[in-house]
Design brief:
This protein has 108 residues and is mainly alpha-helical. The protein is 54% helix and 5% strand. It has helices spanning 27-51, 53-56, 66-89, 96-100, and strands at residues 59-61, 64-65. A two-stranded antiparallel sheet has the order 1-2. A hairpin with a 2-residue loop joins β1 (59-61) and β2 (64-65). α1 packs antiparallel against α3. The longest helix has 25 residues, at 27-51.
């Protein structure tokens, strides 16, 4: 067998891909939708800063200005969107312990 070279192209296999490495059918669509939502939220933050910076100085809650509240809101939104994505995709892959075991506790 010929030794692979660093510059050689990877071999293409006719074998089916492992189901754990292939995303669920709607995963990329959901991911893009959540990304679009976050992008719109972030663009709102950027545009307010760019075109109405005085608005960000407005005190909104407990002596904190809009920039602080909006910034923390963006962080919380990112975390929530990540949880939504994770919750929506839970159980779509295969468990690696099921694949590695043949039922007897030994590797296949």
């Amino acid at each position: 067998m010929k030794e692979p070279s660093i510059l050689s192209a990877p071999e293409i296999s006719d074998q089916p891909h492992d189901s754990a490495t292939i995303a669920a059918p709607g995963a990329s669509r959901l991911g893009l939708a959540l990304f679009a939502i976050y992008t719109l939220l972030y663009l709102g933050f950027v545009f307010i800063n760019a075109f109405s910076a005085d608005t960000m100085e407005m005190v909104v809650f407990a002596g904190l200005n809009l920039a602080i509240i909006y910034g923390f809101g963006l962080i919380i939104a990112a975390i929530l969107l990540a949880f939504i994505y994770g919750f929506a995709l839970r159980g779509t892959g295969t468990d690696s312990t099921d694949k590695a075991s043949n039922g007897t506790g030994e590797s296949a």
